[in-house]
Amino acid sequence: MNPVLNSLKQAAIDWRLVMMGTVLAAIAIVFNILSGGLFLSPENLYNIAQQTAVVGVVATVVVLVIVARHIDLSVGSVMGFVGVLIATLMYTAGWHWVSACLAGAAVAIAVSLYQGALTAMLGVPSFVVTLGGLMSFRGAAFLVADGKTQPVNDAFFQRLGGGFDGAIGVGASWLLAGLVVLALAAQSWAKRRAKASYEVPNNPLWLDAALVLVPVAIVLAFVAAMNAYQIPSKDAPQGVPIPVLIWAAVALVLSFIVHRTRFGRYVFAMGGNPEAAALVGIPVRRVTLMLFALMGVLITVAAMVSIARLNAGTNSLGSSMELYVIAAAVIGGTALAGGSGSILGSVLGALIMQSIDSGMLLLDVSIGVRYVIIGQVLIAAVVFDVMYRRLTGDTV
Amino acid sequence: MSTVNTPQALVEMRQIGKAFGGVQAVDDVSLTLYPGEVVALLGHNGAGKSTLMKMLAGAYPIDSGEVLINGEKAHIRTPVDAQRCGIESIYQTLALADNLDAVANLFLGRELLTRWNTLDDHRMDSHARKVFLRLNKNFKNVRTPVRRLSGGQRQVVAISRAIYFNAKILIMDEPTAALGPEETAMVGQLVRQLKAEGVGIFLITHDMPDVFGLSDRLAVMKNGKLVGSYRTADVTEDEVLGMIIAGKQPEGKTQTHSL
Fold first, then answer.
1. Is B48:B221 a contact under the CB 8 Å cutoff?
2. Rounded to a whole number, what is the distance in Å from the CA of A282 to chain B's nearest CA?
């Protein structure tokens, strides 16, 4: 066999991710042509990136929940509840934003653990538990402030949501890009060395180099685009928006958890074969509870970004977000049957959805048509998933 | 056989009972296993043999009775407790997470960690390759999800757990049910090798050639009760079938509960 093809086949490249990246690029190019170059303008890319962050943050952890054969339909409602709570504590009760957010996190974790305990300890299907939660916590979001909108005025806190002052500027963006490039190279080098020291076969050098260069190119292009966007009334370009940084940090931490910790491995094992997981001694209940607790933490992060972006906490915050989050996970290749999914996939999935939505907005497509199309995109993603698994012989 | 110098039993299960709802799945069963001994456990589907073994492996809690390992009372409540006692199981279903690769499955629940408490993938990979190679010279695709592996390779992964973690007591639940002739021979070879190393083996099987080819003693269960336990050399296949089907003890044969 051709040695190049052979190395590509042996290397652990996730071809599904490559394909999704290609789809995203194709969507961008098509919309760019249709909109006469508006879609790929720095301003539009900046907006898409920061608009996707909230859904993206929650989608990373929903991937893990679905991988473990559970579902969480209550994410939007819990986010609304916690968001209004944080805003109320800051505005009405006069708390500092740090203590308000910590209190919000405590409540979100308690809510998640309550739903997780019903699922893990009593075996109530998470679909039912969180369907109830979808209703209840939307009600709770209303009750917190009696339905009144709570403004968020703290200037520092507002930056978390992006917007006018919510980016880190040109210099810091390039510095960050440089650090990411160095980290990617160092990681690949360390991996090669570790493999060699354990006599595990390595990829050929050119392949590992290519595997580093692709993300490097994407990071540099992204930072260049963000640095090219200048709000007309400001005297310096924006740079990378803070919500995107938060999203990236969350995705990085969750990828680390998935690949490098026992907890991550157990989540996948439980999704692949729950019976086997119990037989080999994995503490299934504890892992499920920890997963729901992690959910609570990230819902708080998303709630913070969300109210900072809107400059207010309202009782409708996060309405129907569960649909977007689950759709992002599914478009990103997470199987609803459990056992497979990736964090990076959810990032691409969220971006694909937001790009289609925002592209149609640029083209002045009416809201009805947009809903119809986004719904069908979700179905197309699942059809693709089914076909892909059939072709590659994966039955899960 | 002389009664002096009777070796210490590896496993002694005393009057074990287990009920699911109103059904007595295992009823007052006592069974022993000695080092280097293969005990075949026989009976119809639903006779209670798998349930008995799952209790020993910590997968089900024991309702009544006690288990002694090396003469000492063991408190086996979870699979982790059983693993600490040196008990490894090869389940009929193999207990593999199909979406994970062979290396991850070998170490599932007992991952090797770096000093930062993160998964030490490279060390696990290198250790696993050695074990797999010992069981099957052609086993190279250790990094693909195990659902893409052949039945024999999947069996190798399940067996490698017992080898890598140095099982003292091995439970094999129909290890050859899904295998071809070559792989069946491999399992037989392995049983003899482990036996020579002093590992005690409980072998659940329906396969008479396995029973007579591999086991030293056999125990037959029916409706949750122990029909009897005999030295394999003392009984014929018809007598064994009589015990399995009718629950009838063969006439004029003495039961043996030790070596």
1. yes
2. 5
* Residues of chain B positioned with their CB less than 8 A from the CB of A64: none
Residues of chain A in contact with residue B110, where contact means CB-CB under 8 angstroms, are 280-281
Judged by CB atoms closer than 8 Å, whether chains meet at B118 and A261 is answered as: yes
CATH 1.10.10.10 fits B11-86+167-246, yes or no: no
Instruction: Give pLDDT tens digits along chain B (259 positions).
Output: 444 466 889 999 999 999 998 899 999 999 999 999 999 999 998 899 999 999 999 999 999 999 999 999 999 999 999 999 999 999 988 999 999 999 999 999 999 999 999 999 889 999 999 999 888 888 888 888 998 888 888 989 999 999 999 999 999 998 887 788 888 888 898 999 999 999 999 999 988 988 999 999 999 999 999 999 999 999 999 999 999 998 888 887 888 877 6
Q: What is the rounded CA–CA span in Å between residue A51 and residue A49?
A: 6
Contact A352, A27 (CB under 8 A): yes
Residue to test with chain B: of A9, A67, A279, A391, most B Cβ within 10 A: A279
Domain limits, chain B: 11-86+167-246
Q: Which two tokens stand for residue B102?
A: 């062979």
Compare all CA atoms of chain A with the CA of B94 and give the residue at the minimum distance: A276
User: What's the complex ipTM?
Assistant: 0.91
Closest CA to B47 of B244, B217, B249, B229: B244
Domain spanning A13-166+241-392: which CATH class is it, in words? mainly alpha
pTM of the full structure: 0.92
Find all residues with CB under 8 Å of A95, minimum gap 6, and list them: A89, A103
